[in-house]
Amino acid sequence: MELKKSDFYFELPQELIAQDPLEDRSSSRLLVLDKESGEVSHHVFREIIDYLKPGDCLVLNNTKVIPARLLGVREDTGAHVEVLLLKRKEADVWETLVKPGKKCRPGTRLSFGDGLLRAQILEIVEEGNRLIRFEYSGIWEEVLDRLGEMPLPPYITHKLQDKNRYQTVYAKYEGSAAAPTAGLHFTRELLAEIEAKGVIITYVTLHVGLGTFRPVKEENVLNHHMHSEYYEITEETATLINRTKQKGGRVICVGTTSCRTVESAADEKGAIHAGSGNTEIFIYPGYQFRVLDALITNFHLPESTLVMLVSALAGREKVLNAYGEAIREKYRFFSFGDAMFIH
User: Fold this and answer.
1) pTM of the model
2) Which one of 43, 236, 264, 310 has the largest count of C-beta atoms within 10 Å of its C-beta?
3) Cβ-count burial of 182 within 10 angstroms (0-12 exposed, 13-18 middle, 19+ buried)?
4) 3-state class of 206 per DSSP?
5) pLDDT in tens, 126-169
6) 5-65+163-342 has which CATH code?
7) How far apart are CA 267 and CA 326, in angstroms?
8) Cα dist. 196→155, 190, 208, 220, 236 in Å?
9) 69-147 adopts what CATH topology?
């Protein structure tokens, strides 16, 4: 079987890439797509509540983005370096992306914030990533909060004024290099209203890696290797999701990360099992969803694995038609952009 990358291409005008978050999170626009008929309608995000029914289960990813972008210098030459924290390997050892990387060989020492944080490159691992050991006094989280910047996606060129705007209001467990952006549209008030309506709200944790922005290079999509991400599902969440399915309610995931988490943790019969692990699940057309019934998501990059995931749910043609409509209506795209509900 072959699935072509170019089948997921669409022309996106540069000015539709949202550069800044909206003042009010829930005032984004919402495009609703019926996955059976392909019908599209236009709303404001807070109207999502009209599409949720008592007995539905809304699954949110409560990961927290760390200020993972560190700007520093090499101690030997004073040359500027940028280090992006990808994955914690042990206490103070991280797998990182170093730019420019060529001369940063094992043994190279780096300094950040006038020596407040120092580091040594230990080894070069797959894809040219570096393992780095950090040295500091005090508490790691506080040092990072002081020196680190939010690792915004490459297509956002504006500086973020408020760090919390690249964080969901329910972010809890630190570990992501990127935000689960579909969740950025929810306010605490909207979540309280949804709960009051009789919708069950539950949380999974998936730490989003930068691989989420990695372009698909293979023309045959099936040759693309997905990055691995760590997830956790509690007993309570597994029980709530399983009970929802048994009672005929819908499982509605907020974001592709929540979707990939529940699908990774489900068995053949669609039952969710509590636990933790790494997932490399790649969802593309032809995939049979075991758990998810509907999805709240943002608008994604052309030819990305995320466009392939939403196409698996609603069909490639329906998704590309809806995207065409969103472009004509001048919806805002990507991380700080508008939202879509596929049901």
Assistant:
1) 0.93
2) 310
3) buried
4) strand
5) 888 999 999 999 999 999 999 999 988 888 989 888 889 999 99
6) 3.40.1780.10
7) 35
8) 37, 10, 30, 46, 20
9) Thrombin, subunit H (2.40.10)
